[in-house]
C-alpha cells in the first residue's frame, strides 16, 4: 500500500479510537474511616470495596485505620475532610463519640455513608450493614433450639457502646427469653477482639458456673472462648456460637466445619455494597438511605456446602482479583500504549500538519517563485527597454554629433573656396579676368554656405515646431517644369535622359511653393548626384482619383540604395554607406517633414545599381488644410534662386591663362568637388603642370600612367576612400616614391595619424590657404630633389641619412634591387632599361620616370656612371689592360670606353692609369 494510503487509514483509526472511547467517569475521591482494620472481617470488607472500586478506575480511596480508638477516628475523619473528599465512608468505632463529627461532615454537604456500626443520629446520607437485632435474634432462636430449651449460656459482647453490641444483645435476649429453661449466666464485653475476650474470660472463668453454650458477638471472640474452654478441658460439654460467618481458612464457616463452633450467624461485611451506594450518590443516581444486609445461620447442616460454595466464591474472587490485577496491568499497558498511540498520533498529526504546511509552503513558494520570475522578467524587459532606449539615445546623440561634424565639414569646402580666392586677390597681381573668376567663386560658395545655414534653420524650426505651411493654389505641372529647368543643362552635359512624364497639361494643387521647391530640388539633386552619364531621370505626375490625390514620382537609374539604407533614408542625420551619399543627412528628412506638413506622404523604392524612385503624394483640393495654412499670396523667399546657383553648371568657368610656360614638375589633383578641383588647378598651374581627376580610381589610373611628381588627393571621394587611394599609391612600386598631400575637412588627430600611416607625406585640412598649399608642394618637391642629389652619386645607399631626406622602405628596396642587378650585369654590354624593367616589374617608361624621380638622372646615364666609376677601380690594378677594363665594365669597344671615360673624367683611361700607378705604392 502506498504511504499515502497507510497514512489515511492510520488517521481514520485514530479518529475511530477517539470516537469509540467510553464517556469517561469523572474523578472522585472517597475517604474511608475504618474503626479497626486488623481483623479478617474488616480486611474482607476492604477487599470487597476494592473489588467494587475496580469498576471505577477514576475513583480514589483514601483509607485511614483508627485501630479501635474513637478519638483517633475523630481526628482521622478531620484529616480526611482536609483532603476535600467527594464522599466519606465511616464505620464508627463507637456510636456516641463519632456521631458529632459525622454530623458535621454531613452538614458541610459531604455525603456520608455509614457502614456496619451506626452513629447515634440519622444525619448521614446512607447506611449499609446487617440488621444486628435480627442477627442477635436469629442466634438466640438457634441457641434455644440447639439447647432444646434448657441450659446455661455465657454471652461475650463487642464494644459496649458500639451499635452491634447493643442491638445483637437486644435481639439475642429477646429470642432466648422465650425459652424459660435457658439462663444467661453472664454477659461480659470482649470489645470485638479475640485476645481481649480470651483474657477477660480467663480471668472470670473460675467464678462462672458450668455453661452449656458460649455465644460470642463475633466468630473471633467465640474462637478465643473455645480456646480458653479447651485449656480448661471444658469444650466437650460446651457449645460455641459466633457471628460473622466469614469464608476462608480463618473464617467462621471453616470453624463450624472444623467443629470448633456449632454455628455462626452470617453477617456480611457490606464492602461492595458500600462502594456501590457511594457511587450511586456521587453519580446522582437513585439510592436507598438504609441498605440492610440479610443474615443466615451456618451450622454443621449447611457449613460443608456453604464452605464449598464460599471456597468457590473465594477462588472466584481470587480469580477476579487476579483478573483485576491483570486488567489493571492491561489497563496500565493500554494506557501506556494509549500514551504511545497518542504520542504517535500526535506526531502523525504534527507530521500531517507539517506535511500540509510544507505542501502549503511549497505551493506558496512556487507562487512566490512564479511571481518573482514574472517580476524578474518584467525587470529584465524594463532593463532591456531602458538599454534599448539608452542605445537609441546614444545612437541619436552619435548621429547628431556626426551630423554636426559633417555639417562642419560641409562648411569647410565653401570656406576654402571663399578664403582661398580672397587670399589670391589680396596677394596676387590679379588681372580683371582672374578677379571676376575669384569673385564668382566667392559668391557661389557664400551662397552654398547660406544654403547650408538655411537647411540648418529649417531643421531647427521643424524641431521647435515653428515652421508652418502657407499653401496657395498652383498649377503643379508648370511648377515642376520650372524646377526642372536649371537641371536641364546638367542633364545635357552628362547625357542624361531627363523628362516629365504626364498626360496632364495642368493640375491645380494647393501647396507651399517654398517648401515644395525645396522638396523637388532636393529630390532632383539627389537623382543627378547618383545617376551616371547616359542614365535616365524622370518626373512622373499621375492623378489618383480613388484617393483624390496626385502622385509625383522622381525616378532615376542611379546607383540605388541597399535595403537598410533605403529604410533609414528619411531618418534625421542618417548618411548612406556610399561615400558619395554622405551629405548633410538633412535633405530627405526635411523633405519628408515638408510633405507631412502638407498632410501628404513621401516614400521610396530602391534597388542597388538599378535606381531609386521617390513618390510624393499630395491631396487634391484644400479641405485638408486649416484656414491658417491657406493663403492667396505666397511670399517667395530667395532660396529658389539660391538653389539654382548651386548646381554644377552654375560654377565659374576657369580659364587657363595662355601665357603659362610649360612646367618641369607634374602635379596630379584627385578631387571630386568641381569648384575645388578647378580652384586647385588654377592655384598651381602657374608653377606646375597640373592634371586632375574627379574620382579615385580615375586618379589612380592617371598616376600609374603618367607617374606625376606630386599628388594632391581629397579624402572624401565619390567612389572610394581617399586613404585607400593613398595606400595603393604608396604600396605600388610605380608610384611609391611620389609625395602625396591629403586634403580633408577632417581635422581630428586620429584621421591625420591614419593618413600618415598609409604613407601620406602631408595632411592639409580645409579651409587651407593657397599660399600654404603652394609652399607645401614646393617643399615636398625640394625634398625629393635632395633625395635625388643624394642618390645620383651612385654610391648613395652607403651614405648616412641626410637631415630632412626621407625615402620609403619600398623605394629603398627598389634602389637596392636596381643597384644589385646593375652591379651583377655590369660586364654585359646589353644591360638595358628594358632588361632592368623586366627584372624589377616596371614598364620602360615607369622605370625611367621612377629612377628619374628618385635619382634625378635617366637609367642609361646611371648605368654609364656606374660602369665608368667601376672602371676607375679596375684601372688602378697594375696588370689590367684598358681593353680588359672596358670589357669588364660592359663596353663593347675600347675606343667607345676611352671616349666616354675622357668625357666624364677629363682624362683618357691610359693617362688615368699611369697617374695612379705612379702615385700608388707598389
Ligand atoms: C469486626 C467485628 C465483627 C462484628 C462487627 C460488629 O471488627 O467485631 O466481628 O460482626 O465488627 O461491628
UniProtKB/TrEMBL annotation:
The record's Pfam families line, in alphabetical order, gives: HATPase_c (PF02518), HisKA (PF00512), HTH_18 (PF12833), Peripla_BP_4 (PF13407), Response_reg (PF00072)
* MF terms in GO: ATP binding; DNA-binding transcription factor activity; phosphorelay sensor kinase activity; sequence-specific DNA binding
What InterPro entries is this protein classified in?
CheY-like_superfamily (IPR011006), HATPase_C_sf (IPR036890), HATPase_dom (IPR003594), His_kinase_dom (IPR005467), HisK_dim/P_dom (IPR003661), HisK_dim/P_sf (IPR036097), Homeodomain-like_sf (IPR009057), HTH_AraC (IPR018060)
Please verify whether the record's keywords include Magnesium: no
UniProt entry keywords in alphabetical sequence: ATP-binding, Coiled coil, DNA-binding, Kinase, Nucleotide-binding, Phosphoprotein, Transcription, Transcription regulation, Transferase, Two-component regulatory system
Residue ranges of domain Histidine kinase in the record: 406-622
Q: Which residues carry this modification: 4-aspartylphosphate?
A: 714
What is the official name of this protein in its record? Answer: histidine kinase
Q: Which organism is it from?
A: Adhaeribacter aerolatus
Amino acid at each position: 500500500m502506498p504511504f499515502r494510503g497507510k497514512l489515511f487509514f492510520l488517521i481514520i483509526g485514530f479518529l475511530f479510537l477517539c470516537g469509540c472511547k467510553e464517556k469517561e467517569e469523572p474523578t472522585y475521591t472517597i475517604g474511608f474511616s475504618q474503626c479497626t482494620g486488623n481483623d479478617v472481617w474488616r480486611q474482607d470488607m476492604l477487599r470487597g470495596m476494592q473489588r467494587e472500586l475496580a469498576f471505577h478506575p477514576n475513583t480514589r480511596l483514601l483509607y485511614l485505620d483508627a485501630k479501635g480508638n474513637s478519638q483517633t477516628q475523630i481526628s482521622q475523619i478531620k484529616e480526611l475532610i482536609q483532603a476535600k473528599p467527594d464522599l466519606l465512608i465511616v464505620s464508627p468505632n463507637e456510636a456516641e463519640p463519632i456521631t458529632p463529627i459525622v454530623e458535621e461532615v454531613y452538614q458541610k454537604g459531604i455525603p456520608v455513608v455509614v457502614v456496619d456500626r451506626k452513629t447515634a443520629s440519622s444525619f448521614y446520607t446512607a447506611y449499609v450493614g446487617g440488621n444486628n437485632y435480627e442477627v442477635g435474634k436469629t442466634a438466640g432462636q438457634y441457641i434455644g433450639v440447639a439447647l432444646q430449651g434448657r441450659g446455661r449460656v455465657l454471652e461475650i459482647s463487642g464494644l459496649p457502646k458500639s451499635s452491634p453490641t447493643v442491638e445483637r444483645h437486644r435481639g439475642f435476649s429477646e429470642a432466648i427469653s422465650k425459652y424459660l429453661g435457658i439462663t444467661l449466666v453472664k454477659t461480659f464485653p470482649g470489645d470485638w477482639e479475640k485476645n481481649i475476650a480470651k483474657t477477660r474470660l480467663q480471668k472470670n472463668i473460675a467464678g462462672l458456673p458450668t455453661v452449656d453454650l458460649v455465644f460470642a458477638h463475633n466468630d473471633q471472640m467465640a474462637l478465643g472462648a473455645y480456646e480458653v474452654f479447651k485449656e480448661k478441658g471444658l469444650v466437650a460439654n460446651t457449645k460455641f456460637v459466633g457471628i460473622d460467618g466469614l469464608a476462608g481458612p480463618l473464617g467462621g464457616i471453616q470453624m463450624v466445619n472444623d467443629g470448633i463452633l456449632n454455628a455462626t450467624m452470617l453477617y456480611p461485611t457490606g464492602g461492595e455494597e458500600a462502594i456501590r451506594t457511594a457511587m450511586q450518590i456521587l453519580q446522582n443516581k437513585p439510592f436507598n438511605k438504609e441498605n440492610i444486609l440479610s443474615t443466615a445461620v451456618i451450622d454443621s447442616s449447611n457449613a460443608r456446602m456453604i464452605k464449598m460454595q464460599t471456597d468457590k466464591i473465594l477462588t472466584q474472587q481470587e480469580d477476579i482479583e487476579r483478573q483485576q490485577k491483570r486488567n489493571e496491568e492491561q489497563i496500565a499497558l493500554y494506557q501506556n500504549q494509549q500514551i504511545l498511540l497518542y504520542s504517535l498520533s500526535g506526531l502523525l498529526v504534527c507530521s500531517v500538519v507539517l506535511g500540509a504546511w510544507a505542501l502549503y509552503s511549497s505551493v506558496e513558494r512556487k507562487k512566490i517563485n512564479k511571481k518573482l520570475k514574472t517580476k524578474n522578467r518584467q525587470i529584465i524587459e524594463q532593463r532591456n527597454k531602458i538599454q534599448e532606449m539608452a542605445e537609441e539615445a546614444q545612437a541619436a546623440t552619435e548621429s547628431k554629433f556626426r551630423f554636426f561634424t559633417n555639417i562642419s565639414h560641409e562648411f569647410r569646402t565653401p570656406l576654402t573656396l571663399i578664403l582661398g580666392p580672397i587670399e589670391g586677390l589680396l596677394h596676387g597681381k590679379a588681372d580683371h579676368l582672374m578677379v571676376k573668376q575669384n569673385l564668382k567663386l566667392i559668391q557661389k560658395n557664400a551662397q552654398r554656405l547660406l544654403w547650408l545655414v538655411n537647411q540648418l534653420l529649417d531643421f531647427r524650426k521643424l524641431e521647435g515646431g515653428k515652421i508652418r505651411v502657407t499653401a496657395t493654389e498652383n498649377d503643379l505641372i508648370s511648377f515642376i517644369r520650372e524646377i526642372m529647368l536649371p537641371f536641364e543643362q546638367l542633364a545635357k552635359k552628362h547625357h542624361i535622359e531627363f523628362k516629365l512624364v504626364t498626360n496632364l497639361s495642368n493640375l491645380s494643387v494647393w501647396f507651399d511653393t517654398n517648401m515644395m521647391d525645396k522638396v523637388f530640388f532636393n529630390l532632383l539633386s539627389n537623382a543627378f548626384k547618383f545617376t551616371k552619364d547616359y542614365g535616365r531621370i524622370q518626373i512622373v505626375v499621375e492623378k489618383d482619383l480613388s484617393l483624390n490625390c496626385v502622385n509625383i514620382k522622381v525616378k532615376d537609374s542611379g546607383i540605388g540604395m541597399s535595403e537598410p539604407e533605403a529604410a533609414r533614408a528619411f531618418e534625421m542625420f542618417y548618411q548612406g554607406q556610399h561615400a558619395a551619399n554622405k551629405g548633410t543627412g538633412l535633405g530627405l528628412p526635411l523633405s519628408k517633414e515638408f510633405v507631412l506638413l502638407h498632410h501628404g506622404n513621401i516614400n521610396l523604392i530602391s534597388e542597388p545599381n538599378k535606381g531609386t524612385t521617390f513618390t510624393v503624394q499630395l491631396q487634391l483640393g484644400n479641405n485638408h488644410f486649416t484656414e491658417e495654412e491657406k493663403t492667396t499670396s505666397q511670399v517667395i523667399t530667395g532660396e529658389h534662386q539660391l538653389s539654382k546657383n548651386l548646381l554644377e553648371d552654375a560654377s565659374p568657368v576657369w580659364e587657363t591663362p595662355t601665357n603659362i610656360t610649360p612646367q618641369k614638375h607634374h602635379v596630379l589633383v584627385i578631387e571630386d568637388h568641381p569648384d575645388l578641383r578647378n580652384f586647385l588647378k588654377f592655384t598651381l598651374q602657374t608653377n606646375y603642370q597640373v592634371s586632375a581627376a574627379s574620382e579615385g580610381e580615375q586618379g589612380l589610373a592617371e598616376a600609374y600612367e603618367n607617374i606625376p611628381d606630386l599628388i594632391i588627393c581629397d579624402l572624401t571621394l565619390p567612389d572610394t576612400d581617399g586613404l585607400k587611394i593613398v595606400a595603393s599609391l604608396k604600396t605600388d612600386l610605380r608610384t611609391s616614391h611620389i609625395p602625396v598631400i591629403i586634403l580633408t575637412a577632417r581635422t581630428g588627430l586620429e584621421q591625420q595619424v591614419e593618413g600618415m600611416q598609409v604613407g601620406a607625406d602631408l595632411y592639409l585640412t580645409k579651409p587651407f590657404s593657397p599660399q600654404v598649399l603652394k609652399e607645401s608642394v614646393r617643399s615636398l618637391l625640394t625634398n625629393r630633389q635632395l633625395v635625388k642629389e643624394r642618390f645620383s652619386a651612385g654610391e648613395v645607399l652607403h651614405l648616412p641619412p641626410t637631415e630632412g631626406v626621407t625615402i620609403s622602405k619600398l623605394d629603398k628596396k627598389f634602389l637596392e634591387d636596381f643597384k644589385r642587378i646593375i652591379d651583377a650585369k655590369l660586364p654585359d654590354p646589353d644591360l638595358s632599361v628594358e632588361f632592368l624593367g623586366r627584372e624589377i616589374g616596371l614598364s620602360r617608361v615607369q622605370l625611367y620616370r621612377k629612377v628619374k624621380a628618385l635619382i634625378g638622372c635617366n637609367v642609361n646615364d646611371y648605368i654609364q656612371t656606374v660602369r665608368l666609376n667601376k672602371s676607375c677601380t679596375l684601372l688602378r690594378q697594375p696588370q689590367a689592360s684598358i681593353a680588359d677594363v672596358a670589357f669588364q665594365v660592359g663596353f663593347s669597344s675600347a675606343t667607345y670606353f676611352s671616349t666616354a671615360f675622357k668625357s666624364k673624367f677629363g682624362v683618357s683611361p691610359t693617362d688615368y692609369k699611369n697617374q695612379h700607378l705612379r702615385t700608388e705604392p707598389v
